[in-house]
Design goal:
The protein is α/β, with parallel strands linked by helices. The chain contains 15 helices and 5 strands. The chain has helices spanning 18-35, 51-58, 80-91, 110-118, 133-145, 152-162, 166-179, 187-194, 198-210, 214-227, 230-252, 260-267, 271-284, 288-306, 317-329, and strands at 10-14, 40-43, 68-73, 97-103, 122-125. The protein has a 5-stranded parallel sheet, with helices on both faces. Helix 9 (198-210) packs antiparallel against helix 10 (214-227), helix 10 runs antiparallel to helix 15 and helix 14 packs antiparallel against helix 15 (317-329).
């Protein structure tokens, strides 16, 4: 039976940002089980031909009235029978049943979202988080949620290090907030914790390359290979190089007279990074033929670092580092 204080009887996460959807699932399951410890969790596969029957069975009255939490991830994959079965549950939700649903967004089976909301569901938006200010705002909320503070430079360094990998970003923030006692957490703390990891070193290598500090880039590359997981160095470095090149070109092609904030929005980078990218572009804008050849070289290096395109073309660690060093030397 329903207990006083439990979460909404129907919760639906709408959107495709995995980190946000996972949070809704985890928090809902934790809240329900905290209030109803003996609840039975039933997961229904929406793509199963028997989904409609499984929904009805999961929510059917039982002899002892056990509490049930039915989870359906991706209700947009339900067939017509499954949709009808779920709508019936919406119309007459048993007192011992809670629903946790997800939908990736879009128009497919959108009426199911509307029907859930009409039935009293708590709809939680989990839309993709855009690069730039939206990402920083999300991370700031993550820090605030832990009743801590972090400087903008520290947040931007995390984004440069881990990109749009939100599970990794959330994990990094959690570790910093747990271990660093002072407020605000700053760039020094981020470097102290993640300097030796392949992602953050990859972006340092990338900056050195696009600033035409090839010797420094080579030194950083070899140091990173010794201090962190060698298997990740190639992938993260090439990814960082590609990201840095893309950002540099976008900033270089911005409208004359545009402010740093305007350029940052267009390029999807933090405003403080614009000055650095403009400096980098000034060193490459007169050598665009070489820059074009590097675009091709980076594109070819990406699959090579990840295992090769065809069977039998995978490189071992030493071969990957050799190819990566050759790529770096091409930027002289």
């Amino acid at each position: 039976m329903q207990c006083l204080g439990v979460p909404n009887r129907i919760t639906i996460a709408v959107g495709s940002e995995t980190a946000l959807v996972d949070r809704v699932k985890a928090s809902t399951i934790a809240a329900v089980t905290r209030e109803v410890p003996d609840i039975t969790r039933i997961v229904v596969d929406p793509s199963d031909d028997e989904a409609a029957a499984n929904i009805a069975q999961a929510c059917a009255p039982t002899l002892f009235g056990e509490d049930v939490l039915m989870v359906i991830e991706g209700i947009d994959d339900l067939d017509d029978d499954g949709v009808d079965s779920l709508k019936e549950i919406f119309d007459q939700l048993p007192e011992n049943v809670w629903l946790l649903l997800t939908h990736p967004g879009g128009n497919k089976r959108k009426p199911l979202i509307d029907a859930a909301v009409k039935a009293g569901a708590e709809k939680i938006e989990c839309k993709d988080i855009k690069r730039g200010p939206e990402t920083i705002a999300f991370l700031t909320k993550e820090v605030t949620r832990r009743k801590r503070k972090m400087t903008p430079a520290a947040l931007n360094l995390l984004v440069e290090s881990f990109g749009q990998d939100f599970p990794a970003l959330i994990s990094a923030i959690g570790q910093l907030c747990s271990d660093v006692e002072v407020d605000p957490i700053d760039e020094v703390h981020v470097r102290a914790y993640f300097e030796g990891t392949a992602p953050i070193s990859g972006y340092k290598i990338s900056d050195a390359i696009w600033e035409k500090r090839t010797a420094d880039a080579m030194k950083l590359l070899r140091q990173t290979a010794l201090e962190s997981d060698p298997g990740r160095v190639g992938v993260t470095t090439v990814t960082a190089m590609a990201s840095g090149l893309r950002s540099m070109i976008l900033v270089g092609g911005s409208a004359p007279g545009a402010s740093d904030n305007e350029v940052a929005r267009e390029a999807g980078v933090p405003p403080w990074k614009v000055k650095t990218l403009r400096t980098q572009w000034s060193r490459w804008s007169g050598d665009q033929r070489k820059l074009a050849s590097l675009v091709v070289a980076i594109a070819e290096a990406d699959p090579a670092m990840k295992g090769g395109i065809e069977t039998g073309t995978a490189l071992d660690l030493e071969q990957k580092l050799f190819e990566l060093e050759k790529l770096v030397t091409r930027t002289r």
